[in-house]
Specification:
The complex is a heterodimer of chains A (93) and B (652).
Chain A: E1 17-19, H1 29-33, E2 39-40, E3 50-51, H2 62-66, E4 73-75, E5 85-87
Antiparallel strand pairs in A: 1-4, 2-3
Chain B: H1 2-7, E1 20-30, H2 34-45, E2 50-53, E3 70-71, H3 84-94, H4 101-121, E4 145-146, E5 156-157, H5 163-173, E6 177-179, E7 182-189, E8 198-205, E9 211-221, H6 250-257, E10 262-263, E11 269-270, E12 296-297, E13 306-307, E14 348-349, H7 352-357, E15 365-366, H8 373-379, H9 383-386, H10 391-400, E16 408-411, E17 427-428, E18 435-436, E19 449-451, H11 462-482, H12 490-501, H13 513-527, E20 531-532, H14 534-549, H15 560-585, E21 596-597, E22 610-617, E23 620-627, H16 634-641, H17 643-646
Parallel strand pairs in B: 1-2, 1-9, 2-6, 9-19, 20-21
Antiparallel strand pairs in B: 3-5, 4-5, 7-8, 8-9, 10-18, 10-22, 11-17, 12-15, 13-14, 15-16, 22-23
Helix pairs in contact in B: 2-5, 2-11, 3-4, 4-11, 6-15, 13-14, 13-15, 14-15
Classes of the chains: A alpha+beta (93), B alpha+beta (652).
């Protein structure tokens, strides 16, 4: 139990964008398409961008539509927005 | 890990506060959404120099940037059974006259021209792959797919995710100068005087913080309608309202400051959608808009009855897409009955109180599996897939999580598409809200200034934005061609520069933009909620003015991005004031304006059946009025102002 604990200044409470670093080329096309400008490019070339303003995401998915590498970027819906559905024969999913 | 990393991260772009860029152009288009792109295209086709400015990246910016699933009021398409006149008059009557006869006539008359234009640019407007061959809503000759009223065929289902990139490409091809990531901060007037000719604008880049001075012969306001006035989520600011965070009405605020005249700004309706409480739009079981006219079942699988406007139960699904017996046309159905007159009311499911009384059990579900295959594919796949933000957050996300439209029932929450209930004081500018007053050129009351799309009063939908954008663009270009090069007043420019850059000065008692926005919504809810009175409104106005004189001076930003957000909340404050002044000016309640006055409770007294206008003149509020039909004959006035377009001398 000697691990240090840090004060982390409060930031956004949502995490709307998931980037897979193995698939992302760091091309920053998502940075350039986002109309709200929630991303900033990584200071290291060819590395995934940083979601600097996660709370400002309006969940349009344009970054996903624009990404040339399928699976490199995914939209991570708010967990409270998980909608219920069931099979027509009444079995819950 | 991200959090530790980001704390020490340097701003990634070169910061150039105070650096001035001066741009000269013939036509300056402010806002590059659907309306702005069309305005730029129309002006560029007239051969003038055009600059287009937007806070986001124009390729996908604006409320319609990520998509749209249907295009309303294309009354001149070859399959339509209504004339532009008939449809516009229906829309006016449906709102007891409180509607924009000019802009909606333009929408009905020219919207279809814009669709054909879009197709040439690479947008998809018809079922070229024959996916829906044989469907009831498809015209086999044109391959158009229709929505809602299948008999009158004036609303088309479209592949709207293809539209914005196509418009952007066309702007570039025509040589329009693009200024992305640039927030417009103010309008410039001749001699710096309120009410004079508009001669350009100022802007600031949201990444570098550098300053822009745009000088133009003609100027167009194509920005968003105001939002974040009553509803703001500091936790999820991006989904505070239906439109994107930064589409919050900068254009209204800067127009107000230079003396532009507004009307109907007293109208607001009870909240329809706000992301902290609602599910993603069109992501739950419902019958509205994108989901029209999906079958619904109750908890035990019993189908909810659909009725026509007279309460007759409809026997089959096809009838949901047809006017009632003796009815010429309907203006949408499904969850909209509160908004439409009996004459134009469409089919709907029984009201919830009646359903519960008749033994139907909650929760309800959308029953896509029971819909005919073409209707199911049109809802789930075409419309949920092309609508504003449904392709990735709904279609892709749900599909990957295992949702199968042939097998699953999707639950409904709250009240239909809204999926949440709001308090009467939680309001929005939605459903034909107020805005800038326009004439038959889509010109404002100021020389050199035109408006289109969501900045016009009683605006809605993509077809309206496109048609009015194009129309305003060509009239603004005509003005630019015949007018002189304007002079900028540099005192006005310098005072705007100091206003902007004062926000980057750090201070110990600093206030951030989110707290500021939240304070505005608190005041608006308390003093400009559902029930209004002179006393309440005056206290509210005083509180907004106090904010302007005290807290506004404490706003601070640590980088260009925060600077943009801070300038936005100052505009939201101004927009709140426009609303309060407009509410004070109308001394009567009105049903169709959703306007209740406790001190003037009589509903719609005939003397008040008129447009009330407000503007600043010598920094004093000036109230005016116009007859409810101030725009005169639709066909005659359109003909007088658009001879070139009608005779085909202007590129259609």
């Amino acid at each position: 139990m000697n691990k240090k604990v840090y004060v982390i200044p409060e930031q956004g409470i949502s995490n709307p964008i998931k980037i897979n670093p193995d698939l992302c080329s760091g091309c920053n096309k998502c940075v350039e398409i986002c109309q709200v400008d929630i991303f900033i490019p990584s200071p290291v070339k060819h590395k995934p961008p940083i979601v600097a303003y996660p709370g400002e995401c309006w969940y349009c998915g344009c970054c996903v539509m624009e990404c040339p590498y399928p699976g490199a970027i995914t939209l991570n819906p708010l967990s409270m927005n998980k909608v219920n559905w069931k099979l027509k024969n009444n079995t819950l999913r | 890990m991200r959090k530790n990393f980001i704390d020490n991260l340097e701003w990634p772009y070169p910061v150039k506060y105070h650096l001035e860029n001066e741009i000269n152009t013939d036509v300056l288009v402010l806002g590059g959404g659907i309306a702005g792109c069309w305005a730029a295209i129309a002006a560029a086709r007239k051969g003038v120099k055009v600059a287009l400015v937007d806070k986001g990246a124009i390729i996908r910016s604006g409320a319609g940037g990520s998509g749209c699933d249907h295009w309303e009021s294309a009354a001149t398409n070859p399959c339509s059974h209504v004339s532009p006149e008939e449809l516009t008059l229906a829309m006016i009557k449906d709102h007891n006259g409180y509607n924009n006869g000019i802009s909606h006539y333009i929408e009905c008359r020219e919207g279809y021209d814009r669709l054909l234009d879009l197709e040439k640019m690479g947008g998809k407007i018809r079922d070229t792959e024959d996916e829906f061959k044989g469907a009831e809503f498809r015209d086999e000759k044109t391959k158009f797919l229709f929505a809602y009223d299948y008999e009158n065929k004036f609303t088309l289902r479209v592949w709207g995710t293809t539209f914005k990139p196509a418009l952007y490409k066309e702007c570039k091809r025509l040589g329009v100068e693009i200024y992305d990531r640039t927030m417009v901060t103010s309008l410039l007037t001749e001699g710096g005087i309120q009410g004079n000719r508009v001669v350009g604008a100022t802007g600031i880049n949201g990444r570098t913080g550098e300053f822009f001075i745009f000088k133009a012969k003609a100027n167009l306001l194509c920005m968003a309608r105001p939002s974040r006035i009553w509803l703001f989520s500091p936790s999820f600011p991006g989904i505070s309202e239906f439109r994107p965070l930064q589409c919050m009405g900068d254009g209204h605020a800067m127009a107000w400051n230079v003396g532009v005249e507004f009307t109907m700004m007293e109208k607001s309706i009870r909240g329809q959608w706000s992301g902290e409480r609602s599910y993603p739009p069109y992501g739950t079981g419902n019958t509205h808009n994108t989901w029209y006219a999906c079958s619904m079942v109750d908890a035990e699988g019993k189908e909810l009855p659909w009725i026509d406007r007279d309460g007759n139960i409809l026997d089959n699904i096809s009838q949901r897409y047809r006017p009632a017996s003796g009815q010429k046309l309907f203006l949408k159905g499904g969850g909209e009955s509160d908004f439409h007159l009996y004459e134009f009311q469409g089919p709907d499911i029984l009201p919830i109180e009646d359903l519960l009384k008749n033994g139907f059990k909650l929760p309800f579900y959308a029953d896509l599996p029971s819909m005919p295959e073409f209707e199911r594919k049109a809802i789930w796949g075409l419309m949920v897939g092309q609508e504003g933000k449904s392709k990735i957050p709904i279609l892709k996300t749900y599909t990957e999580a295992g949702f199968d439209p042939e097998k699953h029932l999707l639950q409904s929450y709250g009240e239909g598409w809204t999926s949440a209930s709001f308090l009467p004081r939680e309001r929005q500018l939605f459903g034909l809200p107020g805005g800038i007053l326009n004439d038959w050129n889509l010109k404002t009351n100021l020389e050199g200034l035109y408006a289109a799309g969501d900045q016009l009063f009683a605006s809605d939908c993509v077809g309206h934005a496109a048609a009015t954008g194009y129309y305003a663009g060509r009239h603004a270009a005509d003005y630019a061609i015949r007018s002189s090069v304007p002079n900028i007043d540099y005192q006005q420019v310098n005072s705007e520069k100091s206003r902007i850059y004062s926000i980057i000065n750090q201070r110990d008692d600093g206030l951030k933009w989110k707290e500021f926005n939240l304070h505005i919504t608190r005041i608006m809810q308390n003093y400009c909620g559902e029930i209004k009175s002179d006393e309440l409104l005056k206290i509210g106005l005083k509180q907004l003015e106090d904010m302007e004189h005290e807290e506004a001076l404490r706003l601070y930003a640590r980088n260009p991005h925060e600077l943009i957000r801070s300038l936005e909340v100052l505009n939201i404050l101004t927009n709140g004031k426009i609303i309060m002044y407009s509410c004070l000016a109308r001394k009567a309640s009105s049903k169709l304006l959703h306007f209740l006055r406790s001190d003037y409770p009589e509903m719609d007294p005939p003397d008040w059946h008129k447009f009330i206008t407000v503007k600043l003149e010598n920094n004093e509020i000036k109230i005016g009025e116009l007859p409810i039909d101030y725009y005169g004959s639709l066909t005659e006035n359109y003909a007088i102002h658009n001879e070139e377009y009608i005779t085909g001398r202007v590129n259609k």
